[in-house]
Amino acid sequence: RCQTYIGQGTRYDADKKKVGKYFSTSIYEFAMHCGTIVGHERSVDGRVFCNQRMVIRTDPKNADYELVEGIRRKVETWDPTDAETTSFVDPETRRKMEADPMFKKEQTLTAERRDKSEKQRMSDLTELQHEREDT
Question: Angle, nearest 10°, between helix axes 101-132 and 91-99?
């Protein structure tokens, strides 16, 4: 209802109820209400808080939680190339580098040149930022 993201580990005042067993492990169900302030018009019961009922059940079979009522899981996937992180050498290039010392040297020099240009670019941007900074 309020579209608020709840991070894992957020504490709530929940009602805990034992609803079953998986082998010898108990399955618990936690029922809680959202405490986000949304206003009278978006609230479930006309009060200031959202008060949306959320129910989460433990899932010992998969070592996870089941989202039973009033809540849904947000799945975020990411690609390392989008984050501009260091890319690792693919297996074929790695084999070539192990077999051919000249190829390895070329790859190393290319990576060093790229790092040097990136560091220079970062230095230029930092310098530009300091020039434009208000004193």
Answer: 120
Q: What is the mean pLDDT of residues 85-104?
A: 80
| Helical segments of the chain, H only | 91-99, 101-132
Task: Output the pTM of the full model.
Answer: 0.52
Half-sphere exposure of 79 (CA within 13 A, CB side): 2
Indicate the pairing of strand 64-69 with strand 53-59.
Answer: antiparallel
Q: How many C-beta atoms lie closer than 10 Å to residue 31's C-beta?
A: 17
Nearest CA among 57, 65, 59, 55 for reference residue 22: 59
Whole-angstrom distance, CA of residue 2 vs CA of residue 4: 6
Task: Give the span between the Cα atoms of 110 and 13, in whole angstroms.
Answer: 56
The three-state secondary structure class of 64 is: strand
